[in-house]
Amino acid sequence: MAFARYFTQTLTTLATAIALTGAVASVAQAQQFFRIGTGGTAGTYYPVGGMIANAVSQPGKIIVTAQASNGSLANVNGIAGGALESGFSQSDVATWAQKGTGIFEGKPNLPDLRLIANLYPESVHVVVKKGSGIKSVADLKGKRVGLDEPGSGTLINARLILAAYGVKETDIKPEYIKPNQSGDKMKDGALDAFFFVGGAPAGAIAELATAGGGIELLSIDGPQAEGLRMASPFFAVDTIPGETYRGVGQATTLAVGAQWVTSAKADTQTVYEITKALFSESTQKTLSAGHAKGKLINLQNAVRGAGIPFHPGAEKFYREVGAIK
Fold it and tell me: In b/e form, how buried is each residue of 52-90, taking b as 16+ CB within 10 angstroms?
């Protein structure tokens, strides 16, 4: 009798344990993890990515995290290689990667790259120290210039802009470092200029504008900019308003779109839920209050400048709300 009771209790305990294990496994299986590759911590991608990740996460269902990276090129390659579920990329880099054009000409392209949303315009900043005498990109010849790291969209754009002004990379003393490192070097007098492509205001540049003797922004306009736009139509005319950075006047420049991209292999329902959450009323309020560029992350801008196909999950949401037909 005692043995029968012991045997029954053991079976009950075992059944409970199996049921609990199954429940835990079911929860673990149901919860999706979705990483966003952003950029350097001093740029715009990183804080915006963090805001989006927090706002669209649904605990127990979808956990979205933002992680620092080398930027656009590193992100699209990370998505293709499976190291990331998604990432931010300049529109030019995303289009080249998916179609096998531009910097991907003659290299393996990434045909599975898909768009979740176009986010906001990224302005090209060419930062010089105030009173340096550098008035144009053409004046950078012979100067120490930060171009950002390999794998960044900024480096690609910097090369195009230098070429448009007749400046070869061998004409300058290039440094392949992140914008915050460029800012530190400029503060110390070890760098004359640096390029940064990102939403204005950028933290590293805002900090630099208030330190030491201040900064100036070079304009990218005139026939050189027009020629560049003709050759690379993903560039748009842009303006960084005066006092975006303390003591710095208005600069006419160029911009590319910042886009949130993923793989065609990403789960359709997960991407649908994330896209829907991005444009919910609560997320939109959070983004508007959290960053200057957050106000531009809206339904209208989301479907503009799509150089690559939408992910089916995102497309489903945009069709439901009438953003695309």
Answer: bbebbbeeeebebebbbbbbbbbbbbbbbeeebbbbbbb
Question: What are the pLDDT digits (tens) for 210-249?
Answer: 986 799 999 999 999 999 988 887 888 899 999 999 999 9
Other Cβ atoms within 10 Å of 8 Cβ, number: 10
Locate tokens 């480096």: which residue?
155
Residues with Cβ < 8 Å from 268, sequence gap 6 or more? Answer: 311, 312, 313, 316
Q: How confident is the prediction for the chain on average, in pLDDT? A: 89
Q: Do the two domains 28-120+258-320 and 123-256 of this chain adopt the same fold?
A: yes
User: Rg (Cα) of the chain, in Å, rounded?
Assistant: 24
How far apart CA 160 and CA 153 sit, in angstroms, is 11
Alpha carbon 154 to chain centroid, angstroms: 11
Domain ranges, ordered by start, for the chain: 28-120+258-320, 123-256
Tell which CATH architecture fits domain 28-120+258-320: 3-Layer(aba) Sandwich (3.40)
**In this predicted model, what pLDDT tens digit does every residue of 270-296 receive, in sequence order?**
999 999 999 999 999 999 999 888 999
- Cα 187 to Cα 209: distance, rounded to the nearest angstrom: 10
Q: Residue type at 116? A: I
Percent of the residues in the chain that have a pLDDT greater than 90, as a whole number: 74
> How far, in Å, CA of 121 to CA of 161, rounded?
17
Give the residue among 103, 174, 167 at the shortest CA–CA distance from 136.
167
CA-wise closest residue to 174 among 134, 195, 144, 150: 144
What is the distance between the terminal CA atoms of the chain, rounded to a whole angstrom? 72
CATH number of 123-256: 3.40.190.10
Residue showing tokens 């204005």: 200
